Amino acid sequence: MKMKERNASASSAEKQAAGIAAAKLVEDGMVIGLGTGSTTAFAIAEVGRRVREENLDVLAVVTSYQAEMLAIEAGVPLTSLAEHPVLDLAIDGADQVDAKMNVIKGGGAAHTREKVVANSAIRFIVVADDSKMSEELNHFVPVEVLPYARELVKKQMIELGGVPVMRMASRKDGPVITDNGNVIMDVEFGTIDDPAELYQRLSACVGVVEHGIFLNTDEVYVGRKGGAVEII
Ligand code: 5RP
User: Fold this and answer.
1) Whose CA is nearest to atom 6 of ligand 1?
2) Is the Cβ atom of 19 under 6 angstroms away from ligand 1?
3) Does the CB atom of residue 162 touch ligand 1 within 6 A?
4) What are the pLDDT digits (tens) for 182-210?
5) Burial of 188 (C-beta count, 10 Å sphere; 0-12/13-18/19+)
6) Backbone angles phi and psi of 125, in degrees to 5
7) Quick one: which of 114, 103, 118, 126 has its CA closest to 64?
8) Is 37 in the pocket of ligand 1 (CB under 6 A)?
9) Which listed residue (14, 68, 114, 144) is catalytic?
């Protein structure tokens, strides 16, 4: 196996350990939120296994078409926020988590619905492999943008000290389009000294649908090398 492949499968084992551990929190009768991405995919598969093999009685709200497809494939019964506006638990991945459990999300362009689900949940659990853990946030911030307002948003991001880059599917296919029909700007802010302040400033920008800073994480399940899971 080449070095790159070995690293990918190692991080995949850590993601799997975190996802499975978080799925054990799901109890009979719960209504849960299911996030998007490769780490949450392991949690969805495990919830599905428990539904099939342990008759776990659960309903789930998904955060993306990707999560919907995985949940249906795994046999997890679905519902909506319109029917169940309060979720007992939500499980989702992260692009970066700092020492105070501030999180950057949106690598999968799903952070708008993920934030709605996280804020509808009584308990919000983040699952991550240990490469996502950092003392401070210094990852770019994904920002979902109303396409009509993209130039105005670009200007506001620069005024905030950011360097915005439109996320492209490919040169041929053009920009990434979210499940909500919007585009994504990945905005580099360097080290984010005050995530709460940047959160408020980004939320106040006209034309921003939602940004990827999350401040309401209750626990982080971190998959460490060797398969152990640390709960923070
Ligand atoms: C999607 C997300 C994902 O949860 C985040 O990008 C982490 O993904 P992965 O578990 O594949 O590393 O925020 O919008």
Assistant:
1) 107
2) no
3) no
4) 999 999 999 999 999 999 999 999 999 99
5) middle
6) -105, 130
7) 114
8) yes
9) 114
Cβ atoms of 103 and 214 closer than 8 Å? yes
Q: Residue 170: which pLDDT band, with cuts at 50, 70 and 90?
A: confident
In whole angstroms, give the CA distance from residue 40 to residue 113: 14
Query: Collapsing DSSP states into helix, strand and coil, what is residue 77?
Result: coil
Q: Convert the pLDDT of each residue in 7-30 to its tens digit.
A: 555 589 999 999 999 999 999 999
Q: Kind of pairing, strands 124-129 and 219-223?
A: parallel
CA of residue 103 to ligand 1 center, whole Å: 11
ipTM reported for the complex, 2 dp: 0.99
Question: Residue 230's beta-bridge partner residues?
Answer: 222
Tokens of 6: 């070995």
If phi > 0 it is left, if psi is from -120 to 50 it is alpha, else beta; for residue 183 that is beta
